[in-house]
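TL;DR need structure tokens for one chain.
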Amino acid sequence: MKRRTNYCVLDSRTNHIVYWSGWEKKTKRSVWRRTKIMEMHDLVKYWKADEIAECLEVSDRTRRELWSCVRLYEDLPRGEAPGEYNYPLSKYGWAELTEEAKLDVNAACEKDEAERKGREEERQEEAAQAAAEDPELYIRYEPITR
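>> reply
TL;DR here they are.
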């Protein structure tokens, strides 16, 4: 009475995938299991797999996995200008990465974001010092936000 199927449902309230794993032997009841979905960092929604592999500090194993995801969008249109088409890792390859690689990518994205925030704060402090020294030559510096 065993049946093999690939039933799978996304529970958006708890961010779990619920999937059917088979029949219980003793009671012959259907068994459903839940697994937590790995959350992705916001940068993953915009950057491609090769950009993450080249620009962020990830392990060699994760880098190989990211480069294997590039084949998913190699044959898709590129456009005439760079960046005209974007194939982010969130849509092309996130599901194929192992849990270790996902954790590594998320940690590298967090580190990169912290470094960018630190540089932004340094620039603001420098601008404030320049304004205090010579207010006539000071041009107001405002960071560009997304």
